[in-house]
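Quick one:
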Amino acid sequence: MSDSAAAPAASNGGRAFSAFEWLVALRYLRARRADGFVSVIAGFSFLGIMLGVATLIVVTSVMNGFHHELMDKIMGVNGHAFLQAVETRLTDWDQVSTEAAKVPGVKLAIPMVEGAAGISTAYGQSGVLVRGVREKDLVRLPGIAGSIKSGVLKGFDKSEGVAIGQRLAETLGVSVGDKVSLLIAKGAQTPFGVAPRIKAYTVAAIFSIGMSEFDNVFVYMPLPEAQLFFNKENEATVIEVFVDNPEEMDLFRTQLNKAVTRPLIVTDWRQRNKTFFDTLQVEKNILFIILTLIVIVAAFNIISGLTMLVKDKTQDVAILRTIGASRGSVLRIFLIIGASIGVTGTIAGFLLGLLISKNLDMIRVALNKAFDANLFPAEFYFLSRLPAIVDTREVTVIVVMTLVIAILASIYPAWKAASLDPIEALRHE
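Output:
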């Protein structure tokens, strides 16, 4: 170490993180032929932290996107609360839906007739869930409104036609104006028992909810026609209620019990989809823990790289100590080295993670075209696109966690460097 460096060491030794400490730390970070291997380890540490942070941000964003999209799609056609009759049949569905709609926070209360059926054409067949609804309710249904790809819903009540999902239309090979046949096992009562019922309907509209499971299953028909088809004369099987804030279902149920005069069985989206959304949350937590290991491995690289650097720079550290550098100054020099790797890696990973998350579906489409592949098939994942929602709070946790791990990984090698005895280090020189 030259005499010119000694003066700054002596003059700045009492000031924490002085310009002299930064100068020495940055010189040690630069690759030279003699300590190139140490710089390679530092480079791998940087890459590990960058990839770890980026992967964590992308994965948590995708899981958030899945949760939001599935919640939006499922609640867009299935409602937040479900009212079913008890003791007597739900023939007073009009009164009940009117009373439910008056509860504060309720956006929509839709009486429905639901039933499973088979659907077929000359080109294919499938099992479906038929829903009988009124036209005025169907056009306001969140999952259907704005999702009509062909045809119209105007005059739906009088058309005696049906609205089907786009994937179902592709399976059956039909378009608007074509005929489909619906079949149920329990039809008309005859002297020989109950006969199956089959009836042809015209496709009045084709919708695309964006969730393949729904687009392939749901068939909507006018409520009066559904009552006749399923032998539910002047009856509804369920009233689905949509609310402004699905997270406040307990308050809504209390208000609903006061507003509706007849006995009802009330279930909500939490009961019907609890296992599904709990599974998503568990998967997200497990993936977060597993991917955090990437950051921890990178932190071990920082430890090994700094340890080797300390061993390689033993003589330099001894000389620094003899010209006036304190133990604290040496400690801070090696802390700066480790923290610099962690901070730069975290920033690079943060930017890379945001870039990928914001353009994830475009990247998927590009890869599909480039490799003639089918990444994220809709029939397996229920969604027609790969969603990603960046949560500021989660990204902050990831960044802070990585910085803390990187700094903690730097403490032990830095302490070892500060603990070196300059006399013993220079004894054989």
